[in-house]
Amino acid sequence: MAKVCDITGKTSKVAGGYSNRVRATKFNPTGKVRKQPNMQKKRIFVPELNRAVTITVSTQGLKTIAKNGAYKTLKKAGLI
Q1: Cβ-count burial of 55 within 10 angstroms (0-12 exposed, 13-18 middle, 19+ buried)?
Q2: I want to staple 48 with a disulfide (CB 3.0 to 4.6 A). Which of 26, 42, 71, 79 is the partner?
Q3: What's the CATH code of the domain at 62?
Q4: pTM to 2 decimal places
């Protein structure tokens, strides 16, 4: 499965990894950690085209589709 959202373009990012014990005592970073977005493979029906489209999308992208509509969002992203 792809690691990039088709709608929002979200990818992974590098974040600092600290344990709570380190935070409580002194500054001693534990290293970098790669955080992945919540990607899901969804099959979305587009009534204007009368067909379903399968996309890999983040949860933020799903909220965008719910807000703006499937056809408008997919057309803006260049998927249809």
Answers
A1: buried
A2: 71
A3: 2.30.170
A4: 0.77
